[in-house]
């Protein structure tokens, strides 16, 4: 049971840490640049 | 009914700009920096947030050929907290499939003993490997292969409303759209006949969340000391699982039908730290 709690908390911590590094890395701006325009490839046109 | 209300609320939270379906515009504000956990195309006119699968392919196919730390962290976090609870309660395409299944058509019950592994292959090949290794000769960038050829959410909620409202897009239709639209039609027909066909066989996001079902904080449990093995839960399960034996099967989309079917209330969904 302790092992399960450890795994859950480790994955949660890793997830939050990666998200934080991603934000600091400027990834949100890159997502925004792509998402604010109609992505023809994404919808199978073009 | 509670689940349907939750699904509609989450659909509207992710897609509140319904009037854009008639104008063909897409939202360009800062909320699009955020991913939402369900399959929801960011080229859908009503969407105000981004799709994690689209964002993941953007980075893998980008100039740096890298895995997005933000999207990976986001999927790990939502996966470990909710598992496939997201498929059942949050995903807009899950709601769409549930509505399709309500249409009165002949229903088929299938276990997909082997076909369920297709979603993991699609995740590996179309979401990760192809965007990473196949590059445009001129730009050097990869393409979002899952979005381009498979994703029915992009076709139904993105391409079709945009094609209806924008003449310039209609002029650029080609073979790729025909392939993708045919795939979407097939998925729609199958989803009306087989419960959550897309989630169970094709969805790469479902494949990711399925890996967390046993570990997630939001879990199902069965009190074996009170269970009389009557089989009501298995008969109620449209995915043909055995909730009393494996309440946290990777295939379970947390629809909760087994909880409702159990006359002894031995199957429960709860948040567990232990």
**Rg of chain A (C-alpha, Å):** 17 Å
C-alpha termini separation of chain B: 30 Å
| Number of helices in the DSSP assignment of chain B | 15
Strand order of the largest sheet of chain B: 1-2
Taking the sheet with the most strands of chain B, its summary is: 2 strands, antiparallel
The dominant shape of chain B is globular
Largest protein interface? Answer: A-B, 37 and 59 residues
- How many helices of chain A? The count is 2
The biggest beta sheet of chain A reads: none
Shape of chain A: elongated
Strand content of chain A: under 5%
Can you tag this structure with a few keywords?
heterodimer; A: 46 residues; mainly alpha; 2 helices; 70% helix; elongated; B: 274 residues; two-stranded antiparallel ribbon; 15 helices
Walkthrough of the structure:
With 46 residues, chain A is mostly helical. Chain A is built from 2 helices and no strands. The relative contact order of chain A is 0.08. Chain B is mainly alpha-helical and 274 residues long. Chain B is 50% helix and 4% strand. Chain B is built from 15 helices and 2 strands. Chain B has a two-stranded antiparallel ribbon with strand order 1-2. Chain B is globular. The two termini of chain B are 30 Å apart. In chain B, 48% of the residues are buried. Classes of the chains: A mainly alpha (46), B mainly alpha (274). At the A-B interface, helix 1 and helix 2 of A face helix 3, helix 4, helix 8, helix 9 and helix 11 of B.
Which helices and strands occur, and which strands form pairs?
The complex is a heterodimer of chains A (46) and B (274).
Chain A (H helix, E strand, L loop, with lengths): L1 H23 L2 H9 L11
Chain B lengths: L1 H13 L5 H4 L28 H9 L8 H14 L2 H5 L2 H10 L16 H16 L11 H5 L2 H14 L1 H5 L3 H19 L3 H5 L2 H7 L7 E5 L9 H5 L20 H5 L5 E5 L3
Antiparallel strand pairs in B: 1-2
């Amino acid at each position: 049971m302790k092992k399960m709690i450890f795994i859950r908390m480790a994955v949660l911590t890793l997830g939050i840490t990666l998200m934080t590094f991603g934000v600091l890395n400027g990834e949100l701006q890159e997502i925004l640049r792509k998402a604010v325009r109609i992505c023809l490839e994404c919808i199978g046109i073009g | 009914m509670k689940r349907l209300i939750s699904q509609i609320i989450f659909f509207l939270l992710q897609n509140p700009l319904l009037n854009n379906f008639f104008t063909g515009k897409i939202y360009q504000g800062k909320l699009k920096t955020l991913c939402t956990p369900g399959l929801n195309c960011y080229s859908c006119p009503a969407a105000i947030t981004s799709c994690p699968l689209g964002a993941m392919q953007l980075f893998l196919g980008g100039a740096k050929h890298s895995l997005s730390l933000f999207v990976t962290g986001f999927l790990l976090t939502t996966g470990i907290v909710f598992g496939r609870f997201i498929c059942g309660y949050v995903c807009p395409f899950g709601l769409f499939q549930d509505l399709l299944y309500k249409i009165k058509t002949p229903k088929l019950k299938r276990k997909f003993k082997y076909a369920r592994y297709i979603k993991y292959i699609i995740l590996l090949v179309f979401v990760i490997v192809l965007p990473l290794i196949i590059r445009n000769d001129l730009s050097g960038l990869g393409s979002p292969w899952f979005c381009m050829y498979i994703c029915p959410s992009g076709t139904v909620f993105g391409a079709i409303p945009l094609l209806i409202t924008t003449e310039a897009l209609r002029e650029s239709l080609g073979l790729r759209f025909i392939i993708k639209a045919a795939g979407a039609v097939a998925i729609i027909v199958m989803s009306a006949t087989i419960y959550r066909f897309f989630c169970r066989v094709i969805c790469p996001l479902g494949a990711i969340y399925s890996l967390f079902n046993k570990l997630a904080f939001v879990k199902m449990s069965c009190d074996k000391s009170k269970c009389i093995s009557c089989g009501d839960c298995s008969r109620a399960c449209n995915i043909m699982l055995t909730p009393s034996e494996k309440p946290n099967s990777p295939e379970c989309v947390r629809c909760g039908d087994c909880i409702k079917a159990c006359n002894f209330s031995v199957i429960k969904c709860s948040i567990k730290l232990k």
